[in-house]
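S.,

Sequence below, as promised.
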Amino acid sequence: MKKYKRSLDSRLDYPLILPVLLLLLIGLGSIYIAVSHDYPLQVGRTMILQSVWAILGIIFAFIVMHFNSKYLWKLTPIFYILGILLMLLPLVFYDNQLVAATGAKNWVSYNGKTYFQPSELMKISYILMMAKIVTSYQSVQKATDLVDDFKLIFRLFLVTIPVIVLLKLQNDFGTLLVFMAIFAGIVFVSGVSWKIIIPIALTVLIVGGGILFLTTVDWGRNFLMSIGIEKYQIQRIDAWFHPFENAQNVTFQQAQGQISVGIGGLTGYGFDVATLPVPVRESDMIFTVIAENFGFIGSTCLILIYFFLIYRMIMATYNSNNQFYIYISTGIIMMILFHVFENIGATIGVLPLTGIPLPFISQGGSSLIGNLIGVGLVLSMKYNQLEVDDIDFPNENGKVIYRRSSN
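The prediction came back faster than expected:
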């Protein structure tokens, strides 16, 4: 079967690249404002580091964009194992002060220096592994029933268990929620029966609602702590319910963040303004900088850029006829979408704080590089698409499967 690629220019998804570049520029400007007011002596170092991370992320995205499905298919198990091994490092190499401040051992630190957060890179490896399992299973099971659907979910859960265990040991509940969102998104598009999805979704809602209720009563809090939920996690939920009670200590971050968003008004105060102290304004609370400086209009424009980015990713997924890529893209979309929804939602008080960064904007190299690699994977769908397309990797029986392009 003859296959050939289109011209280089037609293989680049410029409408997807544009919002990413805009978000990177907005991020640099927002970080400058936050750091110049909170840590004025560290402005130069912070901006140089963030710029270097952005450049490295773009380089990695460019490299990943050239990976075709066969190459990714072969490397996926290696990436997954490497990701698991890296997630073991924070359990050994960590900073006691950072753990005391955040309650989590999720950063690799040594000799007082913090280097990177392995779970951010593990998200990409996890997405690749999930996509491989679904694609491989569906290439064998042409017609499925409930038993087959449960078998698929079981396989996906097997590769999820090590991640859950490690995140529990790291005490990183916020990142665990991201992995659960990825898991849910891939299962949803995999064609699993609604007879399974609906009961599971209802169970999650009931359990989640029950946990929220238990945090409102003393005996409930004691019960939650007895089953392994940390006190600071309960306090975060309590702070979500009552952000302006105990605003001088426990709920200070939530209260200051919501006030900062509110005082920005319609148009904001203009560039380089920070009237209120907001903890970790440069990372988890970066949305307060945008809201205070550019108001409701600027905040809405930012959200619209994210919407456009997600739309372009969905269109790239829709136009792909490579099943492996489709599930990879679904995982990337869920990862970025959940980050945006949780970060902004927590900042404005709609959701509890979980310490999740805002994609492409918050300070930090691990998250930025991980997200840019994700973009590179989505770009690779169009870049490597053939005129007669394929799922051109072997299934479990060693056969190569092709599917004719719909273009």
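Residues 388-392, 396-407 have pLDDT under 50 and may be disordered.

Coffee later?
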